[in-house]
Write a structure and sequence with these properties.
The protein is mostly helical. The chain contains three helices and no strands. The longest helix has 29 residues.
């Protein structure tokens, strides 16, 4: 069994880190913005900007990878 999991350990670890980061954005950003005194509108702009960047990255990422190469 360890021989099967060894090749994919880095992939699973990277996926776990990305999932944790995405979860923390959704939890800590509202808490910290409340502590810093942001208005609801400002917090909404930050949240919308995060997801707008995610959307743009979905379209631009494959172009950049295609131009540069995968590895």
């Amino acid at each position: 069994m360890p021989g099967i999991l060894r090749p994919v350990t880095a992939l699973l670890l990277a996926t776990a880190i990305l999932q944790l980061g995405g979860g923390l954005i959704g939890v800590l950003l509202p808490i910290r913005s409340g502590i810093e005194g942001f208005s609801d509108f400002e917090y909404g702009l930050v949240g919308a900007g995060y997801y707008a960047g995610l959307l743009v990255g979905c379209f631009v990422g494959p172009i950049v990878i295609g131009r540069v190469g995968h590895i």
